[in-house]
Design brief:
With 368 residues, the chain is of the alpha+beta class. The chain has two domains: 230 residues, 3-Layer(aba) Sandwich (Rossmann fold), CATH 3.40.50.300; 112 residues, Beta Barrel (OB fold (Dihydrolipoamide Acetyltransferase, E2P)). Helices cover 23% and strands 33% of the residues. The protein has eight helices and 21 strands. Bound molecules: adenosine-5'-triphosphate.
Length: 368
């Protein structure tokens, strides 16, 4: 089933939440709605589910206008943040409830519930009532119920929000397979960029009453539309350095620690303009001091994380810069060090508007 939104507007009293949202979700696609708290993600899901009505715009499911169609007639499954479990039923009965309503046989029901409960790691608490479940377990029970119903459209509102970090990590690996098996069209809300990148075929980044950018996880990571989106994706956060591109002897450069960093010649139009250079910490690496073109820095602190080590350094002008390298790989001792930059991964933003500036394609001269 496809979902199509055309120019959806929604306000509560004088507060505009959605101001013209247009979106197309393909059959079998998992689209992640990602954005800060209050961006309108839940409101958008509630509109699609039919729990609330838009002020303007249309919602189509498989090409059929949903205007006036009751929520229960839309064929949409949901798992919302507030669990909404039946308090008098145990987890098994809660998960099985959509199948019971459909008159499914006991054996099929048990098989379906066991399978999804095992995957979501709640198989050991199936006989517990909601009040005997932790919040994370309640949330996974609600998710299991939505999945067990096998709807062709599934709306999931931050279903792992209360789940601890280790389980979230495991679920990020498991859920895509399960959703693929179900062949459902899924809209999945999260505030966790790693979850968004792991689960979404595409990600719609919501902010300022609408969708700011939509694309594959790779598109958004490598070509964020603006500084805000670049900051939302990535841990540690992208380094942003104020620069004013110049013309160097070999092409366009930006200076960091007085060292000219070669940029794409497609940035010739930005020479002399106030820009911000975005460098992801993993696009930087420590090299021996004195390496040609390397930026001299002073190492401040080093934080070993699980899979990587993050070093905070300062440039000669005292600007902080973070460098990330795989855990276990050798790094600099404290004190003076030098950094080389993978300039192919450098992003340039307009300092006033924050928009990313795409380099102008450079015409290749072809021999006559
Ligand atoms: N029924 C309502 N009445 C008035 N305001 C509402 C109502 N529902 C949502 N809002 C407002 O709409 C805005 C968007 O809320 P929404 O719950 O969609 O955010 P969200 O992006 O899902 O955030 P979170 O990630 O924290 O859940 C908020 O400012 C919220 O206060």
């Amino acid at each position: 089933m496809t979902i199509t939104l055309k120019n959806i507007e929604k306000s509560f009293k004088t507060d505009t939440v959605l101001d013209g949202v247009t979106l197309e979700v393909a059959k079998g696609e998992t689209l992640v709605l990602f954005g800060p708290s209050g961006a309108g993600k839940t409101v958008l899901l509630r509109l699609i589910a039919g729990v609330i009505e838009p002020d303007a715009g249309q919602i189509f499911v498989n090409g059929v206008n949903m205007d006036g169609v009751e929520p229960e007639d839309r064929g949409i499954g949901m798992a919302f943040q507030n669990f909404a479990l039946f308090p008098h039923m145990d987890a098994f009965a809660n998960i099985a409830s959509p199948l019971t309503a459909r008159g499914q046989s006991k054996s099929v029901m048990k098989q379906t519930v066991d399978q999804v409960a095992k995957l979501l790691k709640i198989d050991h608490v199936l006989h517990h009532k909601p009040k005997e479940l932790s919040n994370g377990q309640k949330q996974r029970t609600a998710l299991a119920r939505a999945l067990a119903a096998q709807p062709s459209i599934l709306l999931l509102d931050d279903p792992l929000r209360n789940v601890d970090a280790k389980l979230r990590f495991e679920m990020r690996l498991e859920l895509p397979r399960l959703l693929k098996d179900q062949n459902a069209t899924v809209i999945y809300v999260t505030q966790d960029y790693k979850e968004a990148m792991a689960l979404g075929h595409r990600i719609a980044v919501m902010n300022n009453h609408g969708i700011q950018q939509i694309g594959t996880p790779q598109d958004i990571y490598l070509s964020p539309a603006n500084v805000d989106i670049a900051k939302l994706f990535g841990d540690p956060v992208i380094n942003l350095l104020d620069v004013r591109p110049e013309r160097g002897p070999d092409g366009v450069v930006a200076r960091i620690s007085d060292m000219p960093i070669r940029l794409s010649d497609g940035y010739a139009a930005q020479i002399g303009q106030d820009c911000r250079l975005g460098l992801r910490p993993e696009a930087l690496r420590f090299v021996p001091e004195g390496t040609p073109g390397a930026i001299p820095v002073e190492v401040e602190t080093e934080t070993p994380l699980n899979e990587k080590t993050v070093t905070l350094a300062t440039t000669l002008r005292g600007r902080e810069i973070m460098v990330s390298r795989p855990a276990g790989s050798p790094g600099p001792a404290s004190g003076r060090a030098a950094i080389a930059i993978d300039t192919s991964a450098a992003l340039l933003f307009d300092r006033t508007s924050g928009s990313r500036i795409a380099p102008t394609p450079i015409r290749q001269e072809t021999a006559a």
